[in-house]
Amino acid sequence: MMHIKSDVNFTLELSSDMAKTVLVTGATGFIASHTIQQLLAKTDYVVRGTVRSLKKPDRFAHLTSLPHANTRLELVEANLLDDKAWAPAVKDCAAVLHIASPFLLTLHDPQKDLVEPAERGTENVLRAAIAEDSVKDIVLTSSLAAIADAPVDGKVFTEADWNTLSSLTRNPYCYSKVRGEQKAWELLKNVSDKRLVVLNPFLVTGPSLTKTINPSVGTFVDMFNGKVPAMANLSMGFVDVWDVAWAHVLALTNPNAKGRHILCNEVQSMQQVVETLRTKFPNAKYLVYCT
């Protein structure tokens, strides 16, 4: 066995045969955690995940306790905005899954809080991946938000569409996903020895591997605690986090995968969602009414 030891006495064991290594950015995130779980369970990859700090092991305890983590999981520190952090992070990796990107419901500065980490973070990670000869496959987690800002009557959106409506003042989260994905395609445009696959999931829901409630699921939690007394009866697409994680594994392991891929299990109205929740939780006091 080989041991990798951080400067804070956090030790992980890696298999000595050094199977192919895949870098997963934002390892503790909702989608990334599930993706790491499936990579460890269903592939032979060694997973190198990035975290903001190794000095807070409680933040990634759910990862180090996964089956096979003691032999095939390595965690390293890397900040999206630190361009010097990513060359060592991608060193000797066969692939990069760039999943990290902020999703914040409360914003102080959309440019600083969302757009800069999405665009500059993508540039920092992908420039390092492009410069690393061993990296051949790159999977980017984008969003349906990069394809469409809002429904258009009679319009069926496809992977050929781009969201041209969002801005810093109109749906800045959507705008950040557009800028991040566009940066990826720009960087890989003339790179012939790397394969880029982009995944564009709609609203990702499902169980969390941690006690932390991610923002997309948090909306539904707020329905139960009375923080949202009413909600517009919008319709939106939903996709299970397990399916999104599996899509990352498939994009990584299928050499024929390329381009953009919308991920959506089904479309439901918020009224349908509330009715389903009422059926499942008949004693819930604060489920919202849709208007």
TrEMBL record:
InterPro entries in the record: Epimerase_deHydtase, NAD(P)-bd_dom_sf, NAD(P)_dehydrat-like
Record's keyword terms, sorted: Oxidoreductase
Oxidoreductase keyword on record: yes
Superkingdom: Eukaryota
The keyword Oxidoreductase is annotated on this UniProt entry: yes
Molecular function terms, GO-annotated: oxidoreductase activity, acting on the CH-OH group of donors, NAD or NADP as acceptor
Domain NAD-dependent epimerase/dehydratase, residue spans: 22-260
Family under the similarity heading: Belongs to the NAD(P)-dependent epimerase/dehydratase family. Dihydroflavonol-4-reductase subfamily.
Protein name per UniProt: NAD-dependent epimerase/dehydratase domain-containing protein
Species name: Aphanomyces euteiches
Organism lineage string: Eukaryota, Sar, Stramenopiles, Oomycota, Saprolegniomycetes
